[in-house]
Structure formats: structure tokens, C-alpha cells
Amino acid sequence: MTLLEITDLTVRIGGKTVVDGVSFALEAGERLGMIGESGSGKSLTALAAIGLLPEEATVTGSVRLHGRELLGLPDRALAKIRGEQLAMVFQEPMTALNPLMRIGKQLAEPLRLHRGLSRGAARARAIELADKVGLPDPDRIVRGFPHQLSGGQRQRVGIAIALACEPAVLIADEPTTALDVTVQAEILALLRDLVDEQGASLLFITHDLAVLSSVVSGLVVLADGKLVERTDIAALAHGRHDPHTAELLRAARAAAFPTPGDPDAGS
Amino acid sequence: MLVAERLNRSFARPRRTQAVRDASFTVAEGGRLGIVGESGSGKSTLLRLLLGLDKPDSGTVRFRDREVRAEKASALHWFRREVQVVFQDPRGSLDPRMRVREIIAEPLECLGVREDHAARIAEVLAEVDLEPDAATRYPHQFSGGQRQRIAIARALAPRPRLLVGDEPFSALDASVREKIIELVADLAVRLNLSLILVSHDIGVVHRLCDQLLVLRDGEIVEQGRSATVLRTPTHPYTRELLAAVPRLPDDIA
Known about the structure:
Helix content of chain B: 25-40%
Number of helices of chain B: 10
Shape of chain B: globular
Number of helices of chain A: 10
Number of strands of chain A: 10
Shape of chain A: globular
Radius of gyration of chain B: 18 Å
Largest interface: A-B, 40 and 36 residues
Helix content of chain A: 25-40%
Structural class of chain A: alpha/beta
Structural class of chain B: alpha/beta
Largest sheet of chain A: 6 strands, mixed
Strand content of chain A: 25-35%
Strand order of the largest sheet of chain A: 6-7-8-3-9-10
Largest sheet of chain B: 6 strands, mixed
Strand order of the largest sheet of chain B: 6-7-8-3-9-10
Oligomer: heterodimer
Order of helices and strands of chain A: EEEHEEHEHHHHHEHEHEEH
């Protein structure tokens, strides 16, 4: 079943076409990657889908969630969908979180807003969520502020907020790019586990093919605002691919280094 | 060529931190050392100590048997001629109001290099594969990768023997990144440069460096030949770090 269907999506900002006729669909329970270099239009595609483009942007085409058109919906209607059915995890957890609001309140906000939970119930659920995303000492941490957390912990909070209302679709835009590699590994594992557990669909945006391959099996490749190819990770080694796809694979292969214990390692 | 001996540096604020603890290592003539660590590992502090930009609480840095001390800038001119740095973000490290030729001429002038500056500028632009007319343009007229080429050209201008890179590739897109990595690899061989490369990217260090040291919480937990450390890491943290790096699945790697 198709959950999210994007058709001929075009975004213009300041007379420039930054997303150019992008079409793809995300099935229920699917994990799809979206990859491209900076300026390829991948983040803007995501922002258009969730209705967070800057005001000066003009959008045409169609974004359908459960068959319902989202483009052109009034802000109030969109706000209802956002967080409840369609949620997003951003690259920079420091800027995505409100620095002046306690963690617990930020976790509780979507639950109060969308689920109508009482303050007490939302608070209890916030502690559960903090625990679920592996934050240490959840009772204490919900009383703290974002600056008191490490980058990885902040991203755990971002994931908890996004998944609080169990949305059908989660969009993660470079969620580990700002993190250290050992923290990245933990956050990727957490995302995979939670998305599986909730049966959500995932659109995972990144510039890094190795990261992508650890999360998804299918991917779309964007370049200069256009979707140039839809393929599978497993298919990358064979057949003909768009030059942009081939370049991403070449770069990822060049970045590889021998695995510990590999007898052929280094020479 | 460069010897760091028992370097220590701690900071009192925001909280008492031993940023670098008893760090000792050497870079041989023509050697290429990679310094790997995560945020907070002490990479930046160590680099500042090596470059004479900060004073260690104890310990010494020596370059070709001469001590490098963080004193007034002119006292280190001899060292700056031998050791040049390329930083992470060329947008931040190139003055937007200066033309490329002025940017590249700056170290030549500051360090009192007696040489035809215009000729040297043309030479280093060619070394980094930029057109001669790049000299008259401004940084914003170039792409990110080209700006990093300009930063490399500036570093090469005074004919250093040791090139230091502080995450010089991490602000670049994958395809551009590849080209800049290849450029540095090529320059190192062609100009017989020694390298110190600070990076969180073990893949890059593997490609460019023959020696590798792993920093964690200010301490060198492991050092040795890159190939050996990557193949047979001995410290648990090195093993954890290597295991955490995302990899392509075997069938497409």
C-alpha cells in the first residue's frame, strides 16, 4: 500500500528551480533512502513534503499521504498531520530543540497537542519515551535542558519527539551527520529498531552511501533538483546506473578501508 | 622531523579538563601521520600545541631539533616557513575581501620569503590545478572544492616541508572530496612533503597516512603503522571505533 506519494514535485525559490519534477512513492513499512550531494534538492524535497518550506518558495505538483493531498492545505490542518502522521528528525539536534524548554516538556508537547493527553499523563509518557530512546536516568533528564545533553543524547530526544505519536511516516534528514562515528552507530541502530517496532515507513536522507546502506535497501538518487534514479543497494554492483549514482558508489568504495582481521588489509 | 615529547595541556574552564595527557610521538622526514579521534578527544588542542599556537603545561615540540615555542609570532617565522596548515572550512579560512593572489601572497610577505611572488603564485596555482586567471578573482567566485585548492596553494607558497591538515576534506561533498584527497596524495609524493592529518575519517587517514595515532580523552591509546593498527587494533577503543564506521555491504564493496 502506498503511504506517501510525491508526484512531479517542483519547488522554486527566487526564480530558481531547486526541486524539479520529483516523483516517488513510499510504501507502508518501507525504508527508503534519498541520497545526493549538497544542492541536489533532497532536503527541500523533504521540507516540501512536510510543509516546512520557507514562505518565498512556490511549490507545484502533489504530495499525498494516505491518498490525501497535503499541498495547499491550510497551516492548521497541516500542523495536525505533522507530528501525528508525518514526523521529521533533523540534522542538528541543537537547533531543532528549543533551548529554553525543558526536555520533558518538549517530549510531552506533541502528545498534549495531538493526543490530548493531560499534563500528568503526557509527563509520564515523556519519561517512558526518554527511557525508550535509551536516555540515561530518564526521570532526571526530562527536567533538564538541551544544552546539558551530549549531541547524541539530543538526537535521541529529537527521535523521541518525532516518534511520540507513532507517525506512519518518519523523515530523517541527515540525522547522524553532526555526530561522532561511535554515536552515529548507536543512533542508526536506535532508528532502525524503533521504526521496525512501530511499523513506520522511513525516508532517510543522507549524502553518505555507506550510512544509507546500513539503514535502507531501496534508494532514490537526486542531482541538481532532479530524481535521476530509483534503485536498490544490492543492485548497485551490477548493470547500468545514472552517472551520479555511479559516482556516489565510486566515492563510497574509495573511502573504504580494510576490516580488522582481514588478512589482505593494507599493503 | 617533528618530535612531540610528553605534552600535557589542561584547561580550568568550563570545567577542569586534561585536554592532552602525556602525548609523545614523532613524524619522520617524509612521514605521514594521521591523528584520529572523536569530538572532545583532544585533537584540536594537540594540533595547536604542535603548531606553536598554544603552550603546553609541560613537554616540548621540536622541529628538526629546534624547539617550537608559542611566543610572539615573529619568533616562529622559521617554523611557519617549514610547516603550513590547511583548515576544515575554506569559507572561514579565506578572507572574502582579498583576491586570490593576495591570499596566496600573504604568507610570502609575512614570512619575508625572498622570491618573485607573482611567479610563485602562478606556480602554486598550477600545482593545485587552478587556471592562472584565478589569481585575480575573489573566494566567493569559486566552488567549495576550488576554495580548498586555493587554501592548499596558499599553504604551499612558502615551500613548507610539512603540511598539516585539520579535517581538510570534511566540509566537501563526496565527489569533490575524492579529487582533493587525490590532489593532496599527489602533492605529498611530488613535493616530498611530510603530512600530519587530523581527521575523524579513518578511511581518509588509511589512504594518506603511513602512521596513525588514536586519541581518546586527551590520551594516545594506540599508535603505529596505519596498516597494522587498522588490521590488528589492540586497544578496545580502537576496535570500537573501527567497528562503528559504516561500510558498504560486501556484495557491492
